Request: fold
Amino acid sequence: MKILFFDLENATSKGGAKICEFGYVVTDGSFSVTERGNYIINPNIRHDEWDWYVVRKVLTRKKNEYTKQPTFKDFYPQIRDLILSAYYVVGHSLDGDAKAINGECTRYDLPAIDYDYLDERDVFLLFTDTKQQRSVANILVDLGVEGDTTEHDAEADAYNTMIGFRAMLERSGLSLEDFCRRYAAAKGRSENYRVILQGKKNKTRRHRSRAHHGERTEKPASPRNGNA
Reply:
């Protein structure tokens, strides 16, 4: 079984997010890392379109390290294959990342990537029975586990998403399949260039107490496909 954790960094959100990093970690069903990396991407935007706060305060690389790289179109086959070959796809605040990928696919006239995913941020809300959304780093603090100390690097954030997700799974005492089924309210889907929440946000609020106390939610979080 292959599990994909991924995270993005964006050069700007003007006119839709423009991706400059696609970080990923691939594990097996036991959460042993089998592959990890970070595609550094030229966002292909004008100089004045860059979000300069992001450039100066958020991104871990200088602007010219991105602009000398290939564009999203060149990385599309690798990104598509990573997503479509995974049994489960997990990310933090993945609704926004899925929308960013759809936007880039539209911009470059590329086929849509259709997949189901679990949002670790919403899993954490259910797991801890809280209303307070937490960052990737703060989830690790709250769970008392250590991860990669690099912030705002897409690969490090993908790795830390995996660490937090694994910690919640281990503490639940459930199998991976039962854990994903219990927290199905954190599920979303990207299909035909659209992110379909399937009532995810309302379900997260409505079923927080039920899921926390072990009751089964209505719809299990099925994997994207049958590949193991």
